[in-house]
Structure formats: C-alpha cells, structure tokens
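@channel anyone free to eyeball this complex?
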Amino acid sequence: MPAKALTIAPGRLIKTIHETAQFGAKFAWGSASTETGVCRLALSDEDKKVKDWFYEETKKLGCEIKIDEVGNMFAIYPGKNTGPPTCMGSHLDTQPTGGRYDGILGVLSGLEVLRTFKDNGFTPNYPVGVINWMNEEGARFPQSLMASSVWAGLQTKEEIYKMESVTDSKPVTVKHELERIGYLGDIPANYEANPIAAHFELHIEQGPILEEQKKEIGIVVGVQAYVWYNVIVKGKAQHTGTTPLNSRADALLTASQMVVKANEIAHKNSGLCSVGILNLEPAVANVIPNKVSFTLDARHETDQGLATIINELKEEFELIAEKGNGSKTSKPLKVEFEHIYTSPAVHFNEKCIQCVEESSNALFGEENCIKMISGAGHDSCSTSARVPTGFIFIPSKDGVSHNPEEYSTPEQCENGFKTLLNAVIKYDEL
Amino acid sequence: MPAKALTIAPGRLIKTIHETAQFGAKFAWGSASTETGVCRLALSDEDKKVKDWFYEETKKLGCEIKIDEVGNMFAIYPGKNTGPPTCMGSHLDTQPTGGRYDGILGVLSGLEVLRTFKDNGFTPNYPVGVINWMNEEGARFPQSLMASSVWAGLQTKEEIYKMESVTDSKPVTVKHELERIGYLGDIPANYEANPIAAHFELHIEQGPILEEQKKEIGIVVGVQAYVWYNVIVKGKAQHTGTTPLNSRADALLTASQMVVKANEIAHKNSGLCSVGILNLEPAVANVIPNKVSFTLDARHETDQGLATIINELKEEFELIAEKGNGSKTSKPLKVEFEHIYTSPAVHFNEKCIQCVEESSNALFGEENCIKMISGAGHDSCSTSARVPTGFIFIPSKDGVSHNPEEYSTPEQCENGFKTLLNAVIKYDEL
Ligand SMILES: NC(=O)NCCC(=O)O
Ligand SMILES: NC(=O)NCCC(=O)O
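replying in thread with the prediction:
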C-alpha cells in the first residue's frame, strides 16, 4: 500500500497534545484552557503519569513495550517481518518553564503514526517503534540527552545513576527517582543489546529561522556542537561595609565580568555562550561572596569553532580571575572548570535526510522546505552516533521555546506529523 | 571608689568568648579548638542556647533581666540610685560564615564589666546594664540592626514580625521564630517605655585601619551611611541553543553588567557598592534567565554622598536595562528597585566620645588611639537616634570579618574591655 493512500484523522494529534498537557499544565499565558505551559521534570510524579499514559495507549495499539535500565520506553508496532524497528523518538519530559510542544510533538506524532497504521490496517515491512527518551532536557538532572546517550554507549548507566537533581530542595539521584516512579526497567540500555534500524525525530524548531523565511518544514541536516561546563570562582568572604574596594576578592564581581566576557567571545566567534544557573555563597546582603559557581553553555556550528570559543573562554576567565577586582592592590581569585558534557557537531544520515526531503517536498513543495541545522541538541544526536537518523523541524512562533508561551499552530503540527509518517514509510520501503 | 582601683580578672573575658563559641562553632581554619568560626543565625536553635546562657549568667550576678517583644535582652545590674541604666550593648547573633568576635565581644565585655563590679563589690551610682540586641546581622532575616531599630522607634514591630528568613529552605517569619524559641517577651520594644540612659558599644573594627596604623583603640565618632535595595531585572526565558544573541533578553547578562557598573560607581564616588545575594529563574543550564533579583548594599561617609551614588545607580541601571543585551535588535529589559533599609550617617554623642577618649588615652596613651568612623552599621546607630551613645573599636587581623578567620588577640580584646569599663564608670560618675 503506497504511503499517500493512508487516511489520517485530522485534528487528533493536536487533541492528544492538549490532553496530555494535563500532566503538568502550568503558567497560563492566555484565557483558553490550552494556553498554558507544561512543567514535567524528568522522573517527577507528572512524568510518571505521562509515562503510564503512553504505556497504556501504545499497548492498546498492540505494541510490545520495552522499558530499559535508564527509563527509556520503546513501544514496538509489529511489521510483516521481524528485525530491528524503524523508530520515531523524542521526549515527554519538559523544562520547568516548558511549553506544550518541545519533545512532546515528536513522541505524540510517533504515536499518531502508529494509530494511523492501525486505523488503516496497514502493516509495515518491518516493525516500527516510538521511543520516549528519558531526561532529554537536562533540567532536573543537569545533563541533556541523558538516557539516549547511555543507550548510544556515549556514557555508562552508572555515570548517570548517581547524578543529583538541581531543582529539588533536597537533591535526589537519577537511580533513586527511576526506582521511586517504577521506571527502572530490565532491558539493557544499549544500542547493541536493544537495537533499532533507524531514528526519525520531529521537533519544533525552537528558533526563528523557519518563521522568518516563511517555510513549513525544516529538513534538518545536522546539529551544532555544544558543551556544558560548571565554572567555579573562589574569592574571599569579607564585610561589605568595612572592606575597601581595593582589598576585596569579590567572587560575584569577578563572575559577573566573566558572564559579560563570555557574551563578547560568543559574538566575536559567531557562536553562543549562555549562563543559565548561578549560585553563590554565603548569600548574605552584607558579605562579599567568597564562592560563585555557574553553568556555561557554549555552542558553535563546527567542532573547531567550539574549540576556539572554549580556549578563549578559559584564557580570558583566567586573566579576569588573576587580575582580581580591578585594582593593583586587589587579590587574585581562583577559577576552575568542571566539564559536564560535550555534544559534538552532528551530520545526519544521507538516506534519512532524503526520506524527509522527498516526503516534505511532495507534501508542501520544495519552495516551502529548507535544509538547515539545529541549534539545540536532541536525542537524535545520540542515535546518530549508532544508526541512520533523520530529523524534521516545524516553525516555532517568535522562535520562543523553554517558555510556557512556546507555540506552533495545529496545522504546523499536522504538517510535521505527515512529513514524519511518509518519511518513515519511505524508509521502511527501502 | 575610682575606676582604676577595680581589680580585673585577666584572661576571663577571652575564656568566656571561647566558651560561648560552643553555641554554633563551625568552619575550622586552624588546628586549635578555638580556631573556628561561629554560625549562630538570629533566632536559630544555637541563638536560643546562647540567649539562655546569657540569661543564667546575668541572673547569677543579681541582674534583673527584661526580654522585650522583639527578643532584645536587657540585663540590669542595680546602682545606688534607681533610674534608667547606662547600658553596654551589642549582639550575640552571627553571620553564616561568622567569626568569634563580631558583636559577641561587645556583649561579653559588658558581662565582664558587671562581673568585675561584682568581684570588687562595686556599686555604680545608677544601674548599669548589658543588652543583647536581636538580629543585628541581617543575615537570616535580611535587615541589619533589626530589633534595635524597633526599640528606637525607627520601625514598628509589626514590620519586622512578618519578615521572612532567606537562609532556610522553607522561609519562616521573625514572629514565628521568636515564639518557637521562647523569646517573644512582654516588655514593650520602645525607648520610651523601656528607657536607657546611654549606650556604649565595644566592637572589632572589621576593617584594616587600626592594624595598618598600629593603633590599639579606635575612638569611633560616627558611622557611614548605608542603604540596602533589592534590584529585580526582568528579561525573557528562551532556549540557549536556538536563540541568536541579538534577539535575547538575558536577565543575567544584564544583571552582570549592573554588578560591574555598581563597582565602577562606588570607585568614582569614594563609596562602596556590593552585591551579596543573587537569585535567578528558572535556573536551568539551557534556559536564558528571565528574572534575576539581587541585593545592593551601597555606603558612603555622608548622606549626601550616598544620595549621589543611589541616583547614579538608578540612572545607569535603567540605561543598561533599556539598552538590552547590547545590540540594536535585542529587546529592552525591565529593572525595579525595592528599598529595604536606610541607615543614615551617624555622629555619636560628644560626652560619650569624651568618656571613651579619656578612658583609652589614659590606658594606652593618646598616640595609640585614633578617632575614626565605622564602615559597618551597629546597634549603636539605632540607640544614637534616642540616647547618648559612644563606641569603641579594637583592631581586626587583616581587616577580616564576616568570615570564620576573623581574629583579634586576647590582649586586644582585653584592651577594649578595659576601655569600655572605664568609659562606663566615667559616664556613671557624670
Ligand atoms: N531541544 C532541546 O531543548 N534540547 C536540550 C538540549 C540542548 O540544550 O540543546
Ligand atoms: N557590624 C556589622 O556587621 N553590622 C551589620 C550591619 C552592616 O552591614 O553594616
């Protein structure tokens, strides 16, 4: 049966998106019930609820559901032949200030593909699966693409098990939370022991390019490189009222100079540098901070460009720390870098790109689709290290994401779903 | 009996200082048991313990002890005549990273004065008291001189009752904690209903001047003006990986520029500006912060100088916010100022200054004493608004304070105590 012959259920995808937003709906920004964001941190109670829901829905479709040792969920729809499934994957966890689409669109469109198969009595040549990857966001446990990177063998499960949450007042580990919500599965978290044939991901762009260029679909050919560091600045706790400016070692003043400098370095190298978390000690109004730690998220289209940025950051931060608080008599401070994670630049698989391109061009015309790279990391970066991977973007209103007001129209969501459906069928036919 | 005739107990004061450090000893910086700081936040369990201890010790000396509605403790030693007591006051609460001397020296030297009276069978003309003022530090509840300012009528008790702690993971109010530890007394917190005749305070300098100038005693003639603000910067939460630098409204980048600018303004005006607390939202590595709030502590020797600094800060911060993240296309941010507390410049009472000066010059020679002003606020700033007030400094090693390594030698502490003893007797004789 050719792909175009499948009948789709218009509006069902967007209905499912808004239905599942009940698991963590937060931060109303409009008057309609659908006008809120979603806060569904990885392995939280809300995340458990959506995982349970996903389990039930895919079960109804006749899927086999595998839960691996790091909480990834694989729902496999049977094909005519057995073999590794062609998968569609993304994530159902969100940022604390998350929207309704980031990650969610990808998983629920995958589900919608399976529902469409079922409605049409369509059986693919090989199994087709939907994956809900655990902790893509790196918000509660501060490392993005966490569980997909374990599956891809880029990290061990032991490394992530011990990571602690940063959004709970009493930090808890990944292992603890996997056990607590009942998602520490027994399937090996490994691309060899639990293989897939290919990975397709549909995602909102989270940036302004498609909207600005009035395109419907982004045929994503790669992802920029990025790295996360924890930077620690050490000065001296002293009294704000009695310590002359020239004899201070003010860790916050120094850290502030670094935040400003990082932005300059990003501009200069056509990359991005951002500080999202900053903590200080002792955090008292009349005590000069003796310690500041902050995260540094640096990105560039190329691995080489990112390396240049990192070298400059390290050099300049050392200089700022050594100089102290800016006068001859001020004391030098110390700066340390703790590496958290590097996601190298990714180039997606040519065959998968072709499936996406043929699918989108046929649906919306070549003039409405563009090839582009992604600014954000995605679980597809992990899978791309091991299996053919393809990626699809739809526009994000005003390029806003990681914000409750994140928005794509129902039509844009459906466009993305159709592109995904046809791309997967094309790949299955290869 | 003339003052000089009183026999003192050498070493007892410093022994008492180290004994009471058991209530909150923390952060060892050397190998001796006395080489730690003290963490005794206002109205904490440790603060209750030291208050109970102070109650018992002054009771033993025959004092009447009054506890007022905001937790201030007045221990009154009887004189030959009745009437308002000449008081020696300071505070037993500390910073989270506090030392063994800040405030503590003043209260325990007051106690040592009373013990000396008792040992010598000395009865002053009028009652002499020791006051332990509640929450001088403004660390746990972020307003310094909290309860002395209520006593002085500079603030109402209702205003401080509702203030919330910033060092507890679940904030609690002042009222709640006063009740919890049993120090919500029934004596009116008011200089008219519970009057004192005069206030003398001995304190460590917490700055480098006495040490640098090789002086034993600072005859403090006044205190610089200071103000605390809470500054709130509002930007927009967006994805760090997909949002071009030019379309950001990064509240932390803007706040960092403000921290740097505040330091410049302080330099330019020969004042001080410091940021001790900074919080941001949503505090996720890959989300641009949409909100940053920070405390701003600004100081100057004169009220006029402080006003100039504040005007410049407000003007420059508005400009920084309006300009946005530095490029033509970036969005403006918002900045708001919440005033917390102003402590105007203080000039102590001439008679009290004279008592201190005569006392210190007689003990150590004029060449070893200097007149100076204090960089830090003290409870004496509050009392000075209502009654004759005098103030004494001893040197602080390296000018370090609000730090566990805060240190003054046993001899320096005893010098301060002797100066206080004789100054109070002189005032009592007037
Ligand atoms: N898409 C997305 O938000 N991924 C999280 C990893 C990143 O920060 O790029
Ligand atoms: N002495 C002292 O630390 N006082 C607290 C008030 C201030 O910050 O000046």
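from a first look: The mean pLDDT of chain B is 95.
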